[in-house]
Design brief:
This protein has about 160 residues and is mainly alpha-helical. The protein is built from 6 helices and no strands. It has helices at about 5-30, 30-55, 55-70, 90-110, 115-140, 150. Helix 1 (about 5-30) packs antiparallel against helix 5, helix 3 (about 55-70) crosses helix 4 and helix 3 (about 55-70) packs across helix 5 (about 115-140).
Length: about 160
């Protein structure tokens, strides 16, 4: 993993907080280290899925519109508690929701954690990932040359 993807994962972990991380650990029947690994794997799959969707002709326009909407949004969200769920997340929430099950299935296959458990963990992570993307997008408003790569880290891919 590159430093930039680690940075995105670090931002998600920071936004997630210790209480929600403990919730994921309990859900997965693991400790904080195992939960961090599950979060890291899930975030990597979701960000990879976003990059792949942005590169595919059938979904590139949707991802581009979601990124444009996110970068045009107002001030960043303040913590997951202030976030109104995926329904309030606009186009990016819809894109992430489509990527959730494939990402969870890939993580379950790679880790051996039951798919239902990973699906639930990814469901818990989606609003957090959306909050981090929104915060990053707000910080990039007006600088729309980098697009998705800037939001996830690592520049254009």
């Amino acid at each position: 993993m590159s430093e930039s993807s680690d940075s995105f994962q670090d931002d998600v972990l920071a936004e997630l907080g210790e209480d929600r991380l403990a919730e994921i650990a309990a859900l997965a029947g693991t400790d904080a280290t195992g939960a961090r690994s599950l979060v890291g794997d899930s975030v990597a799959e979701l960000s990879g899925g976003l990059r792949q969707a942005a590169a595919e002709p059938g979904s590139a326009d949707e991802v581009r519109a979601a990124v444009d909407e996110a970068t045009a949004a107002g001030p960043p969200l303040q913590g997951v508690a202030a976030f109104g769920g995926l329904a309030a997340g606009g186009l990016m929430a819809g894109v992430l929701a489509k990527l959730a099950k494939p990402a969870a299935n890939a993580v379950a296959k790679r880790t051996g954690i039951p798919p239902a458990t990973v699906n639930r963990a990814v469901d818990l992570l989606l609003p957090v990932v959306l909050a981090v993307l929104t915060k990053r997008a707000a910080g990039k408003a007006g600088k729309r040359d980098g697009g998705l790569g800037d939001l996830l880290g690592g520049g254009r891919k």
